[in-house]
Amino acid sequence: MTKQKKNTYASSVSRRSFLSGLGAAGVVVTATPMGAVSNAAPVVAPSTLSDTAPETLEGAIPVTLRVNGKLIDLQVDPRTTLLDCLRETISLTGTKKGCDHGQCGACTVHVNGRRINSCLTLAAMHEGDEITTIEGLGQPGNLHPMQASFVKHDGYQCGYCTSGQIMSAVALLKEKCGPADTDVKELMSGNICRCGAYSNIVAAIQDVRQQA
Amino acid sequence: METFKYTKASAIPEAILAAAQSNTAQQGAQIRFIAGGTTLLDLMKLNVERPTQLIDINRLPLNQVEKLPDGRLKIGALVRNSDLAHHPAVSSDYSVLSQALLAGASAQLRNMATTGGNLLQRTRCMYFRNDAMACNKREPGSGCSAIEGDNRTLAILGASKDCVATNPSDMNVALTALEATIHIQGPKGERDVPIGEFFLTPGSTPQRENVLEPGDLITFVTLPAPKPNSKQVYLKLRDRASYEFALSSAAIVAEVSGGKLVFIRVALGGVGTKPWRSLEAEKVLHGKTVDDKLFLQAAEAALHGAQPQSQNAFKIPLARRCITHALTLATKTA
After folding, report:
1. Looking at the predicted complex, does its ipTM rise above 0.90?
2. Which of B41, B44, B68, B301: disulfide with B280, CB 3.0–4.6 Å?
3. CATH superfamily of this structure's domain A40-137
């Protein structure tokens, strides 16, 4: 079953590559909305990740980010949020964009070990900071205990909020938090789960806390 | 979001000099300081704030909490809400501030938001946040869509015919009860402003929310020496148990001796156009014997001038109960 699933995935167009292709095609036919998007988008791809000659734009500013232990030199439009920079420029799409206004927690990452909403901060403000995303926490086959616990307790349904939930939960382990489920719920209230997997999320977090 | 020039300030005078070129330090400012960014970037994405220049002040040396020799507590403007809430001096001597901070926003936002930034937190009035609607605060002279619109969460104290927007901060309510002083450095030098004089009621100029002028930088906040015999309570009532703005809140600093209230400070949140100190309630309470009827009288005095909008008359009994319950909690002996 697992093998079959793996083969199918490898031999077909992934959801991401399909959507990326769709986006590229959209440039041609829908110039206005794409123009609006590019206003907020980073202007130069990082040289380490792109073979094409970098496009330059007036007003772009240089910034070096340390993401998951790797230093990345970038030129960014000053408007680029840390969230957009991670997703669109560095292609770390594990961090999700939900509300883009600090209300849902889907974009939660760690900066210098503390959880923040990456949608409400500019990439340019994080020169020299240690940024950790879900990709830096663990990978398939080498999961962080919190990731493993979310799997064990089925702490998700659609999965869109999950990376933010896990980043919040990992940060919570080092914060001042009482032992009760209600204490965990209070400190996790900045992460909204539209599917309502809350009880399993709390169980996953409490499991890790009890084993620590 | 409109484009802007981004610079990092490495020293306070340099930041002030650059910001002094702004047309205003209030709504419509061309130059803004950015620290946590949690309010400013949110509003810039909505085109409510459209600065042409941002000055990043995060590297300025304003992130310390220190006890001064005279007993006061000095809080740097860049101290994050989470750090302030959990600072030992704050949680032991100024617990109303810890309680208020931890009742606000989410853990992520508290890790970003700063003391200075929270003082300048903007209203959550949906008409202010929507640039398709009339709003005198956002665009002076355009009218107020809230007065005849969805005003359930808005103010019942301090409103005018031009603006009924609520100040959303929890921290500011606690700082008001603690009689904090705001220290400002600007192009003309330094000045200290008591928190009661820092915020402005809307009147006919709701776009002016505080006394800041171009180039003014909040550098730190001081709290008076602690009252070791006081009991402090922040009670927040809201639509959800967590991660929601107050419909009504109360910050109480009370000292009871021989059954009488020998010291009392009352401040309200969620109901006023600014963090609302109730001298009226304090006058009723001061020197009197602790008693439920007295608390009700104090609450009635606090809400005497309340003027509800079409959808928020419920806030009067809600605030009354909030005040009486908070006073009960703050004067309980057991």
Report:
1. yes
2. B301
3. Beta-grasp domain (3.10.20.30)
